[in-house]
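Need the bound structure for thymidine-5'-diphosphate, inputs here:
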Amino acid sequence: MPTVLVTGGCGFIGSNFVRHLLATDPGASVVNLDALTYAGNLANLADLTGHPRYTFVKGDITNRDDVRGAMRRGVTDVINFAAESHVDRSIQDSGPFVRTNVIGTQVLLDAAREFKVAKYVQVSTDEVYGSLGATGLFTEETPLHPNSPYSASKAAADLLVMAYQHTFGLHAVVTRCSNNYGPYQFPEKLIPLFVTRLLNDEKVPVYGDGQQVRDWIHVLDHCRGIEAAWRKGASGEVYNFGGKCELTNLALTKTLLAALGKSESLIEYVKDRPGHDRRYAIDCAKAERELGWAPQETFAAGLRDTIAWYQANTAWVGAIKNKEYLAYYEKQYGTH
Ligand code: NAD
Ligand code: TYD
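Answer from helper R.:
Posting the output first, comments after.
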């Protein structure tokens, strides 16, 4: 009967994971430790209020007392989703990224040792591998070459996890996934930002020439992969997950415009992101072979459902697009 400490469970992927685990494993309990930063939202798990196997603890993973307090609730396993996760914010100010992503991971690893947890899972990203040219795929053997303060902080955390596994014999695995989409994603990332803007007939800012490539995976496929890595992954191993769905940002933008019946005149080409990675693409054969995992959602159906979710949840979006959000966008794009 595992009791899983999910950190960052009020964010996009963490909230989808908590709901998935509680719904599919009647023996599992979840302790969700979340600092409720701008990206953390209690509304993402409002449906679990009063759930007998779910506990929310407000706390910061960089604070040892907060982490120990959460661990004392009978935690047997740790899955670390908590992070500062947006590349553009890391370019504006990398401080919170080093603090949460690196120091927070170190504090969690120390607690995992102290409380002798069975397994530790680090939710990482394909961005630690850097950028690909027109061909090739990231494998688990691809050297780390992070290019943004965000991906550098994630790579540093991955290395700490592996060092704790090697030095202290902690059972630890690292997962590296491509770009997620789905319900509850904060509208600063491309798909929810563009969908919510287009629903209001606002222009969508395409960086540079829009020819950067990302590999899109539905968040539930990622959650199933994390679960498989936790249950079946070998200690010290890295597992890549991807959706086998490479698209240029411009092609994706045009797909969103078509799905919403909007004119291409709503595309606004803006200044490129500094150091913008050109292409990410994942080889997930190892996860398929060793974990028995494969992406199940098609992009067409997943995107249709995601758009429908944002259309149906305008109150959720409205509550997020608050003063802090608007101030960030003014800093990012100016007023236009
Ligand atoms: P998110 O920004 O939506 O959520 C992050 C959550 O962590 C929020 O609930 C926030 O309140 C919490 N948090 C932040 N700092 C904290 C701290 N110091 N202590 C406790 N909680 C804190 O992020 P996401 O998109 O759900 O990403 C989750 C994880 O998955 C991250 O580690 C990210 O690097 C990784 N990842 C994301 C993607 C993607 O496409 N979104 C892809 C691959 C990997
Ligand atoms: P994003 O969702 O921020 O994810 P990541 O940078 O982690 O891949 O961005 C996805 C792609 O979309 C990336 O190439 C940057 C681009 N992008 C835009 O062109 N305009 C935008 O407003 C945003 C947020 C992203």
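Comments: The radius of gyration is 19 Å. The CA atoms of residues 175 and 239 lie 5 Å apart.
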